[in-house]
Amino acid sequence: MSRTVSSARTPNRWWALVVLALTQLVVVLDGTIVNIALPQAQEQLGLSDVERQWVVTAYALAFGALLLLGGRIADYWGRKRTYLVGMLGFGVASAFGGLAQNGTELILARGLQGVFAALLAPAALALLTVTFPGGRERNTAFAVFGTVAGAGAAVGLVLGGVLTEFADWRWCLLVNVFFVIVGLIGGMLLVKESKAEGDNRYDVLGAITVTLGLGSLVYGFSLAEGGWGELDTIGFLALGVGLLVLFVVIERRVAQPLLPLRIVTNRVRGGAFLVQAIVGSVMIGAMLYLAFHLQIVLGLDPLPAGLASLPMTAVIMVVAPIATKLLPAIGPRPLMIGGPLIAAAGLVYLSFITADGSYLVQVLPALIVIGVGMAMVFVPLQNLALSGVAPHDAGAASATANSAMQIGGSIGLSVFTAIYASAVSGFSPAAGTAAGVAQLQAFTSGYSAAFLASAVGLVLASIIAAALIRGSKEELLPQAADPSSAALPVH
């Protein structure tokens, strides 16, 4: 048996949703908010290029590697308790980073942010799962949560631009303290405790292997930016894969697994996790190159560059409520198949950018189309990833969903960087082209290649959804009061 919170016993559940969605926004936007601020931070702290890269990688590495362990801690120790500890630690780490005096301190702070985010994110999503167990309210709650999560990367670029231009890069980290205060107060007042009861022994060996495996995988892909054939790149990737295989073997044999394989072997949930990984790669990886194009090629300052990415977020916010109303009528499958294809079309259009092109003609229409497609995906995605999960496994399933997005983003960023580098090195300017113009043309060629690769990934996501996310809308969307009674189809 598990102690759960039904919506009938949670009168403040919609205010709790606001707090939990805010939490997800903070976790996601922190992956991108420092991107625009990095040039200023590098100059003030004297960071090397390697240190600058690790400001981004340290967060992704700690976050992605520890998510599954964080999810099980939430299940066993208490989701509200884990949420509050994660929120407090995240705030302290953010303040430390905002006051950093050198590169080592900043990188350490970003790593600590990732550690506490690995507690915070699965706890928040698990609390949402048990607060809205089923029915129309659950669909609405997950649509809101998924939309906020999906828009977080773009919001991070905008907020980073505002803070960098009008304040200082340090406020890109210090601003989290205000979010943390709201999250702590809201969490204490509005969120009810829940945890998995019964035999809750920790799977220590599983925790070690998956943490080292995911860490090695993320680190290996970060090294791939310097070349896929390098010995250290191949070594860390191989080590990561080997440790993850060993993790699966361990999980099949232990009585209390860190990640019950029933969570990922379900056909529908497995498909949702794969789509989530690809979407993460696009939202984190491709959007970074959009920021580069806006600033480096189009010459926009940090704030205008951040605002220039805002139309996509605005479209997501407009289309998401429409998709939410469509969800119970047509089911999640059409949205999961059509959404990635629409977003892919926008990215294909974006791949035709030129060094002398305009934002209004070459970028804005693409962002609108991408926003429409992404909204269609975000609305059902989190719901499908957690549908049919027993309350005992809510934290582990939530961690898997977050891990898919984070690991997908890290891998996507590395893959897109390699594609970008290859396109730039292979670019040949026309005879007589000025050196400065040729350099911008080379950059644009690289960005275009990254956008095209993102489009291919989203087409693959649509194919995965068509192949794996099957069943009637009644089967795919839980309507029962207890999520454990709404099993997903496995045919």
UniProtKB/TrEMBL annotation:
One of its GO terms (molecular function) is transmembrane transporter activity. One of its GO terms (cellular component) is plasma membrane. The chain crosses the membrane at residues 12-34, 54-71, 83-101, 107-130, 142-163, 169-190, 202-221, 233-250, 271-292, 304-323, 335-353, 359-386, 407-427, 447-469. The keyword Transmembrane applies. It comes from the Bacteria. It holds the Pfam family MFS_1. InterPro entries: EmrB-like, MFS, MFS_dom, MFS_trans_sf, Sugar_transporter_CS. Residues 16-473 form the Major facilitator superfamily (MFS) profile domain. Keywords: Cell membrane, Membrane, Transmembrane, Transmembrane helix, Transport. This is EmrB/QacA subfamily drug resistance transporter. It comes from Herbiconiux flava. The lineage of its organism: Bacteria, Bacillati, Actinomycetota, Actinomycetes, Micrococcales.
